[in-house]
Amino acid sequence: MTDSSVGFAPAALPWALILAAGSGRRLAAATGGTAKQFLRWRGVPLFWHSARAMSRSAAIGGLVFVFPASRMDAARSLLDALHRRDDLGLPWFVAQGGPRRQDSVALGLAALPGTVRHVLVHDAARPFVSPGLVRRLSAALAEGAEAVIPVLPVTDTIKRVAHGFVRQTLPRAELAAVQTPQGFALPPLRQAHARARENGLEATDDAALMEAMGHEVRAIDGEACNVKITNPDDLALLRDTAPQPETRTGMGYDVHRYATGGRPLVLGGVPIPGGPEVLAHSDGDVLLHALMDALLGCACLGDIGQHFPDKDPAFAGISSAVLLRRVLDMTRAAGVQARHADLTVVAQTPRLAPHSGAIRKNVARLLDLPAACVNIKASTEEGLGFTGRAEGIKVYAVVSAQVCPQPPGTLDTGEA
Ligand code: MG
Fold it and tell me: What is the model's pTM?
């Protein structure tokens, strides 16, 4: 974690309150009754997107999630499941919310660890908050601000209207639309909430409570994309119309030692008659081994040693083409589709040129790719090192792949 950008020592980083305790009444009809913070977008609930932005900012020390009282057990197990899959690397707690937003904030503040000095209060209904905005708010707190809020200039003309008649046109230049997260020094914010409770003061954001106490509230630039999901029309923002495939690159490297009495040399599934023999548990196809590691790299699935241990008798002498088929099943199940493979064989002997055409064709066939998408290169190391002494052979593999995104329309109200 880097804290230098915001000027806090790591232990003193602000914590963030993620407010997910609302009932979302305005959206209930459009979502089938699911509170908006539990709507899923790109596979995870809306509140999780905010938590990720906090984590990615590297400017937040921990999180408190505030959930509706009626949903505490379900929310806890949902959070456990989300963290198992996508660990945010931050300490976190869960707090039970209250009837009003203001009550939920006060309950969330009470759940913060005693060492916390600054807090960002954020509405989970703003899932597009960026790590950059979080960093700028934290930096303002580190510079000594007691309260800092993101604002945007108002582009519509704003009028005060009562009983169907305009009462006043407000001077637009002085108006700003206010977003969350809002950042605060914790002691004055706690005092402001206590005073509001005593005096029956209600406010739609925490900065207003600080203003009422006479604290200076600093305004910084908000972000136009940091919109609040409020009305049924806003749900359109959560529909991915054309998901873009993601491009990945995987790298693989393998070495096999030459040894008289070893296994006959096979490269890319092609036997190399008269070549040196290799020591290996499987068939010793060093090229397919490197290729499999590159494929696993694209899918973030570890390496072949994990999947096919060389102590396991089941893999003794096994054809690497069979193992490659299994690796392709695994990587395809992960949504990874190989598009191109570039393979470099490094060996003093044998000479590769007579075989490289056959290897290229066979590797393309095994990968289910056109031969035009597979490249085989050969190199010696000028007589240097173990390859130069003809003690062994090594192969570098680079695979490019596309990862299919989730299908469009992933916005759903499932909560499991
Ligand atoms: Mg190997």
Answer: 0.68
